[in-house]
Amino acid sequence: MTGHPTRSSALLTDKYELTMLQAALAAGTAHRRCVFEVFTRRLPAGRRYGVVAGTGRFLEALADFRFGEQEVDWLLADGVVDEATAQYLADFRFSGTIRGYAEGEIYFPGSPLMVVDATFAEGVVLETLALSILNHDSAVAAAASRMTAAAGDRPCLEMGARRTHEEAAVGAARAAVVAGFVGTSHLEAARRYGLTAIGTAAHAFTLLHDDEEQAFAAQVASLGAGTTLLVDTYDVTQGVERAIKVAGTGLGAVRLDSGDLGVQAVEVRQQLDALGATGTRITVTSDLDEHAIAALASAPVDSYGVGTQLVTGSGHPTCSMVYKVVARENAAGELERVAKASASKASVGGAKNAARALDARGRATGEIVAVGSPEAVAAWEAPGRARPLHVDLVVDGEIDTAYTGAEGVRRAAEHHARVRAELPLNALRLSVGDPALSTKVVDLG
Amino acid sequence: MTGHPTRSSALLTDKYELTMLQAALAAGTAHRRCVFEVFTRRLPAGRRYGVVAGTGRFLEALADFRFGEQEVDWLLADGVVDEATAQYLADFRFSGTIRGYAEGEIYFPGSPLMVVDATFAEGVVLETLALSILNHDSAVAAAASRMTAAAGDRPCLEMGARRTHEEAAVGAARAAVVAGFVGTSHLEAARRYGLTAIGTAAHAFTLLHDDEEQAFAAQVASLGAGTTLLVDTYDVTQGVERAIKVAGTGLGAVRLDSGDLGVQAVEVRQQLDALGATGTRITVTSDLDEHAIAALASAPVDSYGVGTQLVTGSGHPTCSMVYKVVARENAAGELERVAKASASKASVGGAKNAARALDARGRATGEIVAVGSPEAVAAWEAPGRARPLHVDLVVDGEIDTAYTGAEGVRRAAEHHARVRAELPLNALRLSVGDPALSTKVVDLG
């Protein structure tokens, strides 16, 4: 199990979860069975689909969700909880069941992304951790998916660590790979999730040396002619000439990191070809987003390095996923649907399941959400060709580790590629639009 | 020292830093003295000032920047570096000197926010870590500063953990407090940096119980009448009535989390006063940003809980700080100014120092940046009433721990309040504008 290997994740939590727990323990309601649901009321304005990411990281964090002596002592010392609650937390192990959309899955407003079936006490303390991870990673994955769709067969490389929190950078690189990126510049992300690490040199390396030729020679001597040389520190045309002079026509690639990338790529391609370096690739890396990538489709560019716009979700740095109780046991021991009444933040009560309706050719035609008791929705069979969307993530406290670690990322990336290909073609348009599928709710009573 | 206490920060790094290191070690240039500078070419569009935050976290991460056996083994196994580089990294200790703007300081385009004076090898490997931390935390602090300015004397409370990466949430809460927030909902942030943790209950707690009155009674029984009751799960007017019925007129506060907050606050204030609960406060928490806070200035609101817009930088989730080499030793052992030539990404060569010019009443009138050799700029005395902006953060590898941990946050928050008060009044306007001060460069030759 990777991720926070040496530190508890239990305090990555909002205080109110523990004060609610304390009050419920005292009132005798903490052990009522509850169903919590993660969903979103809307996609970011203009987006046509969302991408679930972070599921594997959530399961890794859940495995580390333990209140150790250090955590409990601090909670007592800071007056966050009383002794009875501290005692409960010291023994805490999540023993409930969690179903949800597989990582990499496409989603829409109202999709029941994760369903937590547990006591109130066990479910309520997971709210912040689940939302932090899913909201962040899914925001990056949604942007990444638009970028890889725009890039077509050309590889996209993640390089955004410097423009996000240093640990968020790990989650962002991972989420980018879930949505089709082929590598990352970030070493810890590569190590933790078995990703391909990429990168060769910055302008600082050229400036360190007495001239550009010396810098290129030093790089090629150490990294081989297959390396990527950054050619825009001084003058691109001279840079390309020196690059081939030093590395020979077997040079792996040149990188352009400033200026009008489309125009420069054409000129550099002609220059490289004229020099006989027909196999030398061109990678571009300056302030790209999905629109810039699409605009470069006809330019002779071989790969895209994306940073800021990827890790900040291309204008939408978070999702609006919420974690709501949708059913709970009453005083008589019966499970009842519940929902907040406020008009602007209404939610649909009841446990849920979901399936994606497909036509005869396997093209998605809609989202079906079934509502009812946990037992009814668990047993629900989607009609016709619909593909079930829920998988078991945790059963009676047992985490399915197939969704975690490097293996989890690999599966999620495969899943995303497969299910994105099901979508109606207009789902992949970058222009402002409505959700690509609409959602039908089936009430099982 | 807090922050990542048990894990090395050394792999929170882009691969190219280590490949550059390897090539420079092989070429014999790795130990040339270099000056690296963190600066930004621009503020986010329309912003009038930036706020430095994350300095303390960077120093904490620097203390943990060690390539242990685990890290070195992985770097070799993944083929990131060769044996000679691995050997260098195993012994790595930063022994250079870092000066910079104190945490909480205001900045403008071109401000030399951090100046790293070290060998190329020691300076180049800190690029990603420094930028990740400073770009993230400063983006949150800049948004937080606008919010606390708009809130005036009313306290702002940080509640955004669920809308950002789970570890970024810690940095975000900390940065919010640097810029004037008085507390955070996030337990780990409170623990790690000695912040005030806040929060009582969510809608889930009301929904757990058979009716709202039971839920309120359970909360008051456990947390006391001084607690905050969330009154908008069903009907606000009934909620307020029940809250006072259960808690009495000594109820601490009610929280509104949906609807038209300004209109509701007026109605709730009238209702509370009519019920005799004249001391019961009103806190509001639904999708606030600095503009919504400003719009509520005349409403009877006592405190603001801010989430999404705070942790996402209120439209600008990252800063555009870069880390550039501005001077380096040449083959002859002399320090030379260097700079990238590309028109759109030009930088000013040379080590720098800075001061804020003040008028006779202590009001800031401009930013002065001195450029020259590290020795000349270190000895530079700002003219007239100007306030020096650089402090020593690390001297010959020795970290000044006064800037780290809980003490560092306290100092940074005090500093921010003091230096924001120096700014021209129009600096605090929320409308789109230009940088509040312009920058004058003094070349010391």
TrEMBL record, chains A, B:
A GO cellular component annotation in the UniProt record: cytosol
Every Nicotinate phosphoribosyltransferase N-terminal domain range: 11-135
Enzyme class: ligase
Domain Nicotinate/nicotinamide phosphoribosyltransferase per the UniProt entry, residue ranges: 157-347
Family membership: Belongs to the NAPRTase family.
PTM comment text: Transiently phosphorylated on a His residue during the reaction cycle. Phosphorylation strongly increases the affinity for substrates and increases the rate of nicotinate D-ribonucleotide production. Dephosphorylation regenerates the low-affinity form of the enzyme, leading to product release.
Superkingdom, natural source: Bacteria
Entry-linked Gene3D superfamilies: Aldolase class I, nicotinate phosphoribosyltransferase
Enzyme Commission code: 6.3.4.21
Pfam family, one: NAPRTase_N
Stated name of the protein: Nicotinate phosphoribosyltransferase
Entry keyword set: Glycosyltransferase, Ligase, Phosphoprotein, Pyridine nucleotide biosynthesis, Transferase
GO MF terms, alphabetically ordered: glycosyltransferase activity; nicotinate phosphoribosyltransferase activity
Catalytic reactions on record: 5-phospho-alpha-D-ribose 1-diphosphate + nicotinate + ATP + H2O = nicotinate beta-D-ribonucleotide + ADP + phosphate + diphosphate
Function description: Catalyzes the first step in the biosynthesis of NAD from nicotinic acid, the ATP-dependent synthesis of beta-nicotinate D-ribonucleotide from nicotinate and 5-phospho-D-ribose 1-phosphate.
InterPro entries, A to Z: Aldolase_TIM, N/Namide_PRibTrfase, NAPRTase_N, Nic_PRibTrfase-Fam, Nic_PRibTrfase_pncB, Nicotinate_pribotase-like_C
Record has Ligase as a keyword: yes
Pathway participation: Cofactor biosynthesis; NAD(+) biosynthesis; nicotinate D-ribonucleotide from nicotinate: step 1/1
GO BP of this protein: NAD+ biosynthetic process via the salvage pathway
Keyword Methyltransferase: no
PANTHER family named among the record's database cross-references: NICOTINATE PHOSPHORIBOSYLTRANSFERASE, NICOTINATE PHOSPHORIBOSYLTRANSFERASE PNCB1
